[in-house]
Amino acid sequence: MRHQRWFTPWVLVIPALTWLLVFNLWPSVNTVILSFTNAKPLGGGTFVGLKNFETLLHDEQLRWALLNSVIYMVVCLPFLTVLPLLLAVLVEKKLPGITFFRTAFYTPVVASAVVVALIWQWILDDRGLVNGLAEKLGVISGPLPFLSDQWLLLLSAISLTIWKGLGYYMIIYLAALGNVGRELHEAAAVDGAGPLRRFVHVTIPGVRGTMILISILISVSALRVFSELFILSGGKGGPGGRDNSVVMLIQQYSQGFEGNLGYASALSIVLFFVTVVPMLVLARINRRGAEA
Amino acid sequence: MSVVTDPVRPVEAPSSSTPPRRKGSFGFNSISPRERVVRYLLLAFVLLITIGPFLWQLSTSLKGSGEDIYTRIPRLLPAQPTFDHYKAVADTIPVWDYARNSLVVAVLVVGGNVIGASLAGFAISRLQFRGRKIVLGLFLATLVLPGEVTIISQYVTVREFGLANTLFGVALPGMIGALNVLLMYNAFRSLPVEVDQAAVVDGANAWQRFLYIGLPSVRGTISVIAIFAFIGAWDDFLWPLIVLTDPDKYTLTVGLQYLSGTFSNNPRLIAAGTMIAFVPIVIVFATLQRFFFKGVEEGAVKG
Questions:
Q1: Using CB atoms, which residue from B39, B56, B237 is nearest to A113?
Q2: Chain B closest-CA separation from residue A34 CA (Å)
Q3: Residue A1: inside a domain, yes or no?
């Protein structure tokens, strides 16, 4: 049964649908087309066949970028699935002033990654807060090169990503905690379960679905990292470009007369496959868990 | 523990017959004084970790040029507070123009998303039409595609429209986000169908149902979308970095990165620059956080 003229729904849908086609669907097709060309940032370019993909195989920068991505994901996953849940439990209870704490914990999420990275650049600088305090306490004799050593730089960027992500995932967990039945907690308490046992046996099973979703979000965003590494390394990608991420390489090829949008598109396809893998794996875990 | 593991009881689904929350009416829910102290201590500790770095940066930006900012014992309060570095930043880069550019982009993105996503979300969830399922599927399908994958060909598209190196080109692709359409779809869907049917009987057409029945009941979700769209546009870095080549047109984030390259040896100036980008967004968020948290909870309960 219809209660409107046939074209009314289409009038409402067409703006959004146009955007979807022009800025999502067509670009995904065009990425594949571009990856077979040597298109330039300023226009032009010709078909070059599989040349870009052959270059990919021998690209040492890409190999480092992929290694960095995997390390990024493996380190971020446990911290960002567990810590925000603990935070959510901490701010769930309605105490006086709890709104202030919730808002304050969310502040790093609201700030631009550029702002956050510039702040941490100063804190992690050779003469910054962390090195200053550590030297004062006598833990180290000279400054630790957080921003110039290949591995320390990567670790610094990872810590930054974890720090900035805490509040974001906390809010998602907080919404999920609201759906965990209160009666379950009460029943468990009546049965004599303490706060820790209730957390393990009531809270965690209750937010299990959210946890899987969050793991997917974390994995994908760890593989997409850009601003933190870009700013902390001063745009250079660390010593010898060994601290690049895949997105940083894509950005580098998007600029100037030397740029190559064809090669950047081939890198984008690599990024697509890299991000799809963890999604499929986690979706599978989710399904198996649901059957069990 | 048998209740907890009982598979018959749905754990996630909120039951509609749950009685309203009663404050402290259950013995187990009341907080002992000791627990209260522990909770506040933990809250204060996390507070230090999350906003400490921002305070440190604010402090650095206000410290006088004669003041040693490299001391081994860090001082939080500036000994000779001054706004000189803010003035110096504005003298070096046109930071107020950058802020205006960011604002223009953010307003376009917020406007586009609020209008475009609510129209489409309403049509897909409340109106019957041929192809509805396909349209919904298309929006869902784009979610698996990280934006960075298509960013290069998006740039090519924007360039072909002749909008490379313009603020409109920065705003355009984000003006209707697929995720926002789905959020609006979800929000409109939670309205009871009977309300619509009653309105139809009363002779309301689709537009009237959208304006007078749909919109007022999804204000929470609309504010979440607006807040997220504003923050996203104001904070974005990669896309404006790719689109903009002309320093006059930089947004704040791109301008800041430019500033940090020029003044890598003066942390006070960089600190002042970051605060210019940070303070407005915090004010926007702190003012609207009530709607934000309410909208998030609303979405969770209904979703």
A1: B237
A2: 8
A3: no
Does the beta carbon of B200 lie under 8 angstroms from any beta carbon of chain A? Answer: yes
Query: Which of B17, B150, B157, B294 should we substitute to test contact with A (largest number of A Cβ atoms within 10 Å)?
Result: B150
pLDDT score recorded for residue B299? 57
The whole-number pLDDT of residue B23 equals 44
Query: How many domains does chain A divide into?
Result: 1
pLDDT tens digits along B84-110: 899 988 988 899 999 999 999 999 999
pLDDT in tens, B240-253: 999 999 999 999 99
The boundaries of the domain holding residue B278 are 85-300
Nearest by CB to residue B11, choosing from A87, A190, A205, is A205
B37 exposure class (CB count in 10 Å sphere: 0-12, 13-18, 19+)? exposed
Cα nearest neighbour of B50 on chain A: A105
> Taking chain B, what is the end-to-end CA distance rounded to the nearest angstrom?
28
CATH no. for residue B266? 1.10.3720.10
Report CA-CA distances (Å) from A165 to A77, A139, B21, B232. Answer: 11, 29, 31, 15
**A85 contacts chain B (CB < 8 A):** no
pLDDT, tens only, B25-62: 444 556 788 889 999 999 999 999 999 999 999 999 99
**Per-residue pLDDT tens for A220-240?**
999 999 999 999 998 888 898
Residue count of chain A: 292
pTM for this prediction: 0.88
SS3 content of chain A, % helix, strand, coil (to 5): 75, 0, 25
Interface TM-score (ipTM) > 0.85: yes
Cα–Cα–Cα angle for A95, A96, A100, nearest 5°? 100
Number of A to B CB contacts under 8 A, please give it: 310
